[in-house]
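A favour, since you know our structure tokens better than I do. Would you make up a two-line entry for one protein for me to read? Write everything out right here, beneath this request.
=====
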Amino acid sequence: MSSISIERLNSLVLRELAIIVNKENKSDLISYYNITEVKITRDLSYATVYYTILNDDPEVIKAAQDNLDKLNKQIRKELASKVNNLRKMPELLFKYDEALAYGNKIDKLLKSVKQ
């Protein structure tokens, strides 16, 4: 599979997962998952799905990860029905995207230095 089609597939999976993950989410603690990036391996074995949530409390982040791990098979099955042009559906690996939290931390530090 060429790099162009992998990039296109990453984009397609990201769009579909953004809908599916929030539809399947039944957690009272996490209201919304923002899927920030999807990286599918060239052999289509794995898809690393990066996400953020609106809360940066470590306990809530852990609960969000546990929730996604619990729903993984259900989400993968739903994704397979939406993206039906793949010969095999990659395993989904959900990872919290720390870039946003890191950016917010830097922003707070810069604001505190300004004052």
